[in-house]
Fold each of these.
Amino acid sequence: MDEVEVVVAHSERATLRVGDVFLKVDADGARLGAEVEAMSLAPVPTPEVLWYQPPALAMAALPGTTLGRLGGPSTGSPAAWAAAGAAIRKLHDAPLPSRLGRAGRSIAVLAAELDAECELLVANGVLPADLVTRNRQVAEAALRPWTPAFTHGDLQIAHVFLDGDEVTGIIDWSEAGRGDALYDLATFTLGHEEHLADVITGYGTDVDREVIHAWWSLRSLLAVRWLVEHGFDPFAPGCEVDVLRSRL
């Protein structure tokens, strides 16, 4: 009998793998339904839905492997990273979904959330004040008007599967919806800055790299405390805190 592998688990949701089947359980049934809808609309390969019965979703495993993970070594040729960039561009060019995604928070809401989080990081001694202050300055460039795109909303490299230089599928669409395209590009290259040029080559159009750098800082500042509280380690080599330190 196949073993049950815990892919990721925290208080909001958990994903298990048994053989060639992924089982995702989400405490928010509406969010799970939005994920199924996003996969049906996305013009890129997604996992086959085997069955869906809230609060659970079963999907077929994707062929291929990911380009790595945050804090781990990156793999894949420049062509593979470019192929991922091309798939992301195809998603961003698709008709807009009705749902507002994680990458679609307003400037005012995001700025207020960021300022409150920065205060807590310093007040609770999670991060040194100079590190927080510098990255808050860098993050300011992300707080600007943007044109809505169909965004994934949590496009970590561990969510994109490739076979050679071909994208075979993208998983974990729970945060998908209308949002800032550069948020996706920044999330995908977070901690792997050396591959940003390859991704942009595949994306097929020039982008504002200063805004991508800003999203690296902003996303990391917002994530550190949540990760610690949910049993993850943002202080591990190559992870969020190292991303913040690289801006000094």
Amino acid sequence: MAQGEIDKVAEETGFSGVVWVDHAGELEFAKAYGAANRTYGVPNTVDTRFGIASGSKGFTALSVISLVQDGVLELSTTARSLLGKDLPLIADDVTVEHLLTHTSGIGDYLDEDADTEITDYFVGAAHELTTTEAFLPLLDGHPTKFPAGERFAYCNGGFVVLALLAERASGVGYHDLVRERVLRPAGMTRTDFYRSDELPADVAVGYLPLDGVDRSNVFHLPVLATGDGGIHTTAADISTFWRALFAGDIVDSVEEVLRPRRDVPEESMRYGLGFWLHETSDTAILIGYDAGASFKSTHDPHTGTTRTVLSNTSPGAWPIARALTA
């Protein structure tokens, strides 16, 4: 797609974010649009860091799979074996693999099937959510939706439970697990977890319309992200990630991670272990959508082509992402 066409879509939609396309490690297109901080008039640049919401579920999955690779966990490990008496409504037969593939059937604290708006408030005392263990009250009290393994149902809470299981099995906090087992081996030097009330100067503030005014998302999300999403990264680091993943630098079993486990026809995609997959090809996909954040990155392992769109608004990424694949 030509730069002029991308510019046109960006102008028509008021896009705020970064578009990045590279082929076999060679940069073909990179451009920033809009403001990283509207209050102070700070523009986005191609090096700006963005929250990627559920895009970081892939990092959670790889951290867990790395622990499986090391014999600390197994895909067949039950959640109950590490939860003990916590979260009693999670069925005893729910396993790590069920959670990784969104087939656990557990009730979700952030239910995407519910009739809600992206501007609604979900997490209550957002400032208290600084650790995975702090999510236990949010995760509790949600009845099982269906028996484990019966079908696919996207579940945010399941990935917080995965983070909890990984912490308890390894004795290492979730954030450090991701740093040690994904970010460092991948060479992602500009990716990390940041408190939303203490963002570095080069991180884009997320915006959403509230009462007719665009406001920060600081009250809508946990103050510090955990297993279901919210890490901050750059377009360049995402490309670095894809290359490292397919080179086997993060986990040995890349084929198992990206083997289709479930067809998801309502999304016209398939799902592996923490990753979306193209409906008919081997293209791997990470997607994130939340209050003040939208993100999509695809990587074709055959051509080495990466297409990434990061935005600091909820709807921002989608028109550009569609245009890139048209």
Amino acid sequence: GVIKESLYPFKTYKISRLRGKGFKRALDFEEILRIINLDLSDHPHLINTRNYFVFSFYTRGMNFADMMCLEWKDVEANVIYYTRAKTKGNFSIAIMPPVQKILDYYREHGYGNKYVFPLLFREDYTPTQLADRKHKMLGIYNIELKEVAKLCNITKNVSSYVARHSFANCLKQKGVATDVISESLGHQNLAVTQAYLKELDTEIVDKALEVLL
């Protein structure tokens, strides 16, 4: 109340725009296989976390919020249909054997409600309750992902978004064309994908530098 609102300098200028972006972290396919094949007989509390990560990887990096709200009606004989909450893009994803195995597991071990994963135990959450539940379960997921990574001798910082980054990275390493990767990620144009991939993997550059040794 000391000065006029018209003199306030931060309506359009925000300090947050100066923040640097963190590096995208991605696993290579050998590390993904370590997670898939990890024996969790002594760590049963990590089974769900491993399943969520593998499911996300094989569904083109489906994010945690979309997995949490995925319903059985979105799963047909061999395709999953969903709308990505972040971008509102529509996806139809072929169900690969690792995904089918996880779906079969949760038909038996889910909550028995309309949701695929045992993350929402009620069907009548308010928007605020849903946001709180997502925040809580995502926190647990990220903590447990670090346990999984440690058991797999993976030193990279593994979090929920690493599944999406790793999916793109592994396709790139396998020689899949950038336009196909772009389509699979749901990017609006190739420039976005090219920038995305450029951040992910420095292995090719690292190998090129070996000629100097």
